[in-house]
Amino acid sequence: MYQYIQYNSQQGVATILLNRPEVFNALNNGIKLELQQAFCQAEEDTTIRVVVLTGNGKAFSSGQDLKAARTEMQGQSYAEAIRQYYNPLIVRMREMEKPILCKLNGIAAGAGCSLALACDMIIASEQAVMTELFVGIGLIMDSGSTFFLPRLVGSQKAFELATMGTRLSAWEALSLGLVNQVVPEDQLDDAVQQYAQYYLNAPTRAVGIIKNLLNQSHHRSLEEVLELEAQWQDVAAATEDHQEGISAFLEKRKPNFHGR
Q1: Which helix (H) or strand (E) holds 126?
Q2: What is the pTM of this model?
Q3: Given 52, 112, 139, 194, which residue has the most CB atoms within 10 angstroms?
Q4: Is 228 exposed, middle or buried (0-12, 13-18, 19+ CB in 10 A)?
Q5: What is the rounded CA–CA span in Å between residue 81 and residue 110?
Q6: Are 211 and 120 in contact (CB under 8 A)?
């Protein structure tokens, strides 16, 4: 079904693997379209409760495939290409009401860094590197990085990282709040599995609503957020998982959530 990625679903977890290791998982138009399709597939599959995004080989993603762009962008402006291929992908990821875990196995550069930041959590190998290197080729950050980066590290640090194209080690990224955890390379699979297992057992609908409200809180007033919380609390309260949570609390046992 897919040429540039691999999609695997197993026991409630969908794993999306960027699969162009020969070019460090650089992003051509084909892989961007396939990523959109894969996230849509995971969203529509009611058995999937968590998604893991990672890269094959030594890199997570080296960013835009500049060699491919020479032929792919003939007659197309940068703005048109961004609107067609990158923007729908980032919006799809942020609107997806299921948690997306980034298994950061290597370098995430340029649009590859943006792709990682669009995930809900990042678990990184000690070998991972993050860099917003757009400025090195005379471009600005895109694919959501101007949105995500200052919210994670603050405006002044974001300006530094963006305008200097700073190369951050995994531990530096952790200290700035860009990633959630750093582990030795041989422990990365286990660390991601632990997070995935948590979300497999979590109330999926409530997690999705929390993600949605956190997204909206960036650009709404306190009064608007308070009203959204009230509205969506009714939605959460109507789920089977809420009833299970109440029963488990009263019965002094661990809840058995089913994501409904």
Answers
A1: none
A2: 0.93
A3: 112
A4: middle
A5: 15
A6: yes
> What distances in angstroms separate CA 15 from CA 19, 44, 53, 215, 230, one per listed residue?
12, 15, 6, 23, 34
Note the pLDDT tens digit of each residue in 25-75: 999 999 999 999 999 999 999 999 999 999 999 999 999 998 888 888 788
Contact by Cβ (8 Å): 80, 29: no
In the chain, the domains with their CATH numbers are 5-200 (3.90.226.10), 204-250 (1.10.12.10)
Of 212, 1, 18, 43, which Cα lies nearest the Cα of 115? 18
Q: How many residues does the chain have?
A: 260
Report the sign of the C-alpha dihedral through residues 175, 177, 180, 186, in that order.
negative
Beta bridge mates, 109: 131
Q: Which of 28, 37, 27, 17 is nearest to 92 (CA)?
A: 37
236 token code pair: 């959460």
C-alpha torsion angle, residues 17, 22, 24, 27 (rounded to 10): -70
User: What are the residues facing 124 on neighbouring strands?
Assistant: 104, 182
Mean pLDDT in residue range 94-111 = 97
How far CA 14 is from CA of 44, 45, 119, 209, 215, in Å, comes to 12, 9, 14, 20, 22
